Amino acid sequence: MFTFCAVGVETLKDMPSPRLVKTHLPVQLRPSSFWKNNCKIVYVAQNAKDVAVSYYYFYQMAKIHPDPGTWEEFLDKVMMGKVAFGSWYDHVKAWWEKRKDYRILYLFYEDMKEDPKREIQKLLKILDKDLPEETMDKILHHSSFDVMKEFYSSLKFTISFFSGISGDWKNHFTVAQYERFEKDYEEKMKGSTLQFRSEIKEIPVLLPTPLACT
């Protein structure tokens, strides 16, 4: 006996508003109703090199994807856009341009790692919400990578394909791969105002101790 998941858009019809939708789809595959209704959209992007590394390990873990081959072979596929959801370059640039006409909050993973409180405040602003400091502290605690990793591990769900470290690509790229990737990156991002950081210095998040969570 097989159990099939309901189609995402059909499921939304039965959900009361406000509704939360999570997807990895590129701009061109979004339902037209998203634009007609001027939905609030939060887009989170990460630098290309760290994405390539995370994607490689995700392909190894998620057997629904074809075997990624060697790291060298998979890196070529990423550069050519021959991976799930297509070209990273097209994906991030298309959403970047779309933000000019719609209510899109474009966030960067590196910024979230560097100063999560600042980025959460941006999220609250687009949602027209205001939270007390105590609630903000709880959000910062429970959304940290270490806490989320512990939670998913308790569910026997592995997230070993993702280190949570910005700049982890340096542990995987050879000098030759880096130089080839950077040349290709400059060509494909030419003319775009979109800029990424490939490494950061994280700001420690100071929380009350002990943290009272209810």
UniProtKB/TrEMBL annotation:
Keyword Transferase: yes
Catalytic reaction list: 4-ethylphenol + 3'-phosphoadenylyl sulfate = 4-ethylphenyl sulfate + adenosine 3',5'-bisphosphate + H(+)
Coiled coil: none
Keywords on record: Transferase
GO molecular function: sulfotransferase activity
Pfam families: Sulfotransfer_1
Residue span, Sulfotransferase domain: 6-192
Enzyme Commission identifier(s): 2.8.2.-
InterPro entries per record: P-loop_NTPase (IPR027417), Sulfotransferase_dom (IPR000863)
Similarity remark: Belongs to the sulfotransferase 1 family.
PANTHER family attached to this UniProt entry: SULFOTRANSFERASE SULT
Record-given protein name: Sulfotransferase
Organism: Equus asinus
Encoding gene, per UniProt annotation: LOC106838838
